[in-house]
Each structure stands twice: as structure tokens, then as C-alpha cells.
Amino acid sequence: MNFVRDVAHSLERTLGISSADDLDLRRTDVAAVSHALGELGRLQSELSRSAPSVDASDVQKARFTATWTLAHSADARHNTRAIQMLESNGRGEAESVERRAERWRDDFGEAATDRDLHYLRAVAHYNGRDYEKARAAAFDALRCDPECRQAADVREAAEEALARDGLVAAGAIAAVGLAVIGAAAATSKR
């Protein structure tokens, strides 16, 4: 499937078909990601030392900012890290929607709504080119807020990408089939 995605992305670049830029997804650079992660680490360290100038809400806000910058990065490793921050329960187990919402309240507090966090999952999956999971996460965001235009745009773009990947896969399979038939015909003439 990675081969098919690579072919699809080559065609996207060649033909100028939709990308994250077309969705008006803001992109963060490595410096922004480094700064956000550094700030999160600093605040977590100060909180663990019981520094009076830092409380849990500061860490929660920094965690949200770090997750946002990772999800909006063009680097697939950053997208993966954002997904891990949003989806990992620390034990590698699947968790219920209720348990995830509870964990998000612990991790992010009032810094973000469930809609925001589902939307960030959708963005991270979309930027990581996992369109099925992006679509599912966008649907989760739309369940929280049916009027969320950004989530609707990501869902629509993910559906278009899935359809495009399906067409490219069908074309690749047809090309391989024609090549096999051509080779068989050439061999049978000898």
C-alpha cells in the first residue's frame, strides 16, 4: 500500500492536486516544534520540583501547544508524535471514547475541548497521509461540534484522497495486469 501512496503523491505533486496547503492547514517548522517541546519540558520539570510559579494548567496549555505544533508539522515523525500524545494511554491498549475523554481532561485540562483534540488527531493523520484515520477523527470532531468547518474540510479532503488512492491503485493493478498479459503474449509467440 505504501507503493500506491507514493505513486499517488507523485501524481499529486505533478498534477497539482489537493494537499494540506489546499486545506489552509497552517504548517509549523522545526523551530516552532522544538520551542513548544522545550517549553513543555521546562514546565514539567519545574512542576515536578514544585516550583511556585508553575501549576498544572500551565503544563496542560504547553502540552496542547506542543501537540498542535506537532500535528501541523510537515515532518511525518512530528505527526506520529502528535498522534501518540493524543491516542496513547501509556499501555498500548485500545481505550474507550469515555476513557480517552477522561485522559484528555487530565492531560489537557481546560486548554482544549474534545472537538479540538479530535481535530488535531485528524490533522496529524491527514498530514501523515493516513486518510482513513483522518476521516474517522474528523467525524469524531464533527460529533462534538457539527458546525466545525475545519473538521468538515479535513473529512472531505480525506475522502477525496481515499478515492484518489483507490483510483491510482486500480490503475496500477490494471497496468500490472496488462504487463503480465503482454509478457505472456510475447512468450507464447516464441
TrEMBL record:
Superkingdom assignment: Eukaryota
Membrane spanning residue stretches: 167-186
Alphabetical UniProt keywords: Membrane, Transmembrane, Transmembrane helix
Keyword Membrane among UniProt keywords: yes
GO biological process terms on file: autophagy of mitochondrion; mitochondrial fission; peroxisome fission
GO cellular component: mitochondrial outer membrane; peroxisomal membrane
Pfam families: Fis1_TPR_C
InterPro entries given in the database record: Fis1, Fis1_TPR_C, TPR-like_helical_dom_sf
Signal peptide: none
PANTHER family, per the entry: MITOCHONDRIAL FISSION 1 PROTEIN (PTHR13247:SF0), TETRATRICOPEPTIDE REPEAT PROTEIN 11 TPR REPEAT PROTEIN 11 (PTHR13247)
Listed name of the protein: Fis1, C-terminal tetratricopeptide repeat
Species: Ostreococcus tauri (Marine green alga)
